[in-house]
Amino acid sequence: MKVFSNDHSPAHVHVSSAEHKIKIDISGTEAIVLRAGKKERKEVDPRFAKKALRLVNSRLAEVRAAWEAIQQHGK
């Protein structure tokens, strides 16, 4: 799970493995998968998405606090 400084809204994290990568929106009460952009037309493996969502949702408050701290530090 990664958070980049000066990243765009909505608040989100990047989750990756050797084979897959996905962006997860953490701005709401529950994490959701962000739709892929035009440059990212690959389909997301549903099993990977489910695991990524479970991971992020299990630590959502902590992940959101980290995202906010990193964005403030990057300004």
Could you explain how this protein is built, in words?
The longest helix is centred in the C-terminal third of the chain and has 14 residues, at 60-73. With 75 residues, the protein is an alpha+beta fold. It is built from two helices and three strands, in the order βββαα. The protein starts with 11 loop residues before the first strand and ends with a helix. A hairpin with a 6-residue loop joins strand 2 and strand 3. The model has no long low-confidence stretch (mean pLDDT 89). The protein has helices at 46-58, 60-73, and strands at residues 12-16, 21-25, 32-33.
Q: What's the oligomerization state?
A: single chain
The unreliable regions are none
Radius of gyration: 12 Å
- Enumerate how many helices there are, as a single number: 2
Compressed to H and E, one letter per element, the order equals EEEHH
Q: Approximately how much beta-strand content do the residues carry?
A: 15-25%
Q: What is the terminal separation in angstroms?
A: 21 Å
The strand order across the widest sheet is: 1-2-3
**Structural domain count:** 1
Q: Average the pLDDT over all residues and give the rounded result.
A: 89
Outline: globular
According to DSSP, the number of beta strands is 3
